[in-house]
């Protein structure tokens, strides 16, 4: 059996879709905190709470391969991931596939520390593992295009920093392939999109597709954080996002030109143009 944590999240749902397309529907176990929210997945659903080890142990019974999608609770993730790994080991799970961060071993992003901790635990767990060091989701930017169009500009603090992103469906397809094929034991894969773009490139593509002049406005970190806070994000989250943008500008924290994702998939990752087209179509 193949189990997926965080199965009702955006990435988890995409992974399940790919696995179903691969004919694995009867082998999938969706691990979720609230089973009532997972009825639409069409697969076996089990309660699994990162903070309640007893639920994890029950949920992993009979599981052969586990996709551990990193928790979204920054600051608590290392402990939560340790709980999952311990339960997997106790239940005899053969292999864990973990969604880490691009270049986690050397990344300056503050997100990287918990990923480095989890990677270290996996490597000493005695279990087979595959670490998927995923780059940024293109949707991190295209999901806010409605606001950009409303206000007439793409805003950020990333300067001319290049972002090698891919869409969630691309990373999900990669995860599904690793989950269902041999040859990935004890490997760490750096996965990033084929296309590396700046926020000016994003603004230019939005302008091209909408026929409007939508410039990119580069803001000081504090000003961008204030914009995000005014848009409704909690201040700590707004501050983090703005700081990540600055690290993109100065440290190329989200750049990668090795094409590891497309090599794994066997086809190009989704282009920025196609991602913008999809986002505009769903506004």
Overview of this structure, please?
The chain is α/β, with parallel strands linked by helices and about 280 residues long. The protein folds into 2 domains: about 1-135, NAD(P)-binding Rossmann-like Domain (Rossmann fold, 3-Layer(aba) Sandwich); about 135-165 and about 190-283, UDP-galactose 4-epimerase, domain 1. Helix content is about 45%, strand content about 15%. The chain has a 7-stranded parallel beta sheet, sandwiched between helices. Helix 1 (about 10-20) crosses helix 7 (about 170-180) and helix 3 runs parallel beside helix 4.
What does the secondary structure layout of this molecule look like, with pairings?
Blueprint: E1 2-5, H1 10-21, E2 28-32, E3 44-47, H2 53-59, E4 65-68, H3 77-90, E5 95-101, H4 112-123, E6 128-134, H5 139-142, H6 145-151, E7 154-156, H7 168-180, E8 187-191, H8 199-210, E9 216-218, H9 221-230, H10 235-251, H11 260-265, H12 272-281
Protein name: Similar to nucleoside-diphosphate-sugar epimerases
Organism: Zymobacter palmae
Pfam family, one: NAD_binding_10
Précis, in short:
The chain is 44% helix and 15% strand.
Number of strands: 9
Number of domains: 2
Shape: globular
The first-level CATH class name of the largest domain: Alpha Beta
Distance between the ends = 38 Å
Strand content: 5-15%
- Named at the architecture level, the CATH assignment of the largest domain is 3-Layer(aba) Sandwich
**Major pleated sheet:** 7 strands, parallel
If you average the pLDDT, what whole number results? 94
| Rg estimate, integer Å | 19 Å
């Amino acid at each position: 059996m193949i189990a997926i944590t965080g199965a009702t999240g955006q990435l988890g749902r995409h992974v399940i879709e790919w696995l179903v397309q691969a004919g694995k529907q009867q082998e999938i176990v969706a691990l979720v905190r609230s089973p009532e929210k997972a009825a639409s997945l069409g697969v076996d659903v089990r309660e699994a709470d990162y903070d309640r080890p007893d639920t994890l142990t029950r949920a992993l019974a009979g599981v052969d391969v586990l996709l551990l999608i990193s928790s979204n609770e920054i600051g608590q993730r290392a402990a939560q991931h340790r709980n999952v790994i311990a339960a997997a080991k106790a239940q005899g799970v053969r292999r864990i596939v973990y969604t880490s961060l691009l270049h986690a071993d050397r990344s300056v992003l503050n997100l990287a520390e918990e990923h480095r901790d989890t990677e270290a635990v996996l490597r000493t767990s005695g279990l087979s593992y595959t670490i998927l060091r995923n780059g940024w989701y293109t949707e991190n930017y295209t999901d806010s295009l409605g606001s950009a169009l409303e206000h007439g500009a793409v805003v950020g603090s990333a300067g001319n920093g290049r972002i090698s992103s891919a869409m969630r469906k691309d990373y999900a397809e990669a995860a599904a392939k690793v989950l269902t094929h041999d040859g990935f034991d004890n490997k760490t894969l750096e996965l990033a999109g084929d296309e590396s773009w700046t926020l000016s490139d994003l603004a230019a593509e939005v302008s091209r597709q909408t026929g409007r002049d939508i410039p990119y406005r580069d803001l000081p970190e504090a000003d961008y954080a204030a914009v995000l806070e005014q848009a409704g994000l909690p201040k700590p989250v707004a501050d983090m996002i703005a700081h990540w943008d600055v690290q993109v500008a100065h440290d190329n924290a989200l750049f990668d030109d090795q094409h590891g994702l497309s090599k794994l998939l066997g086809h190009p990752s989704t282009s920025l143009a196609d991602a913008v087209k999809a986002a505009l179509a769903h506004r």
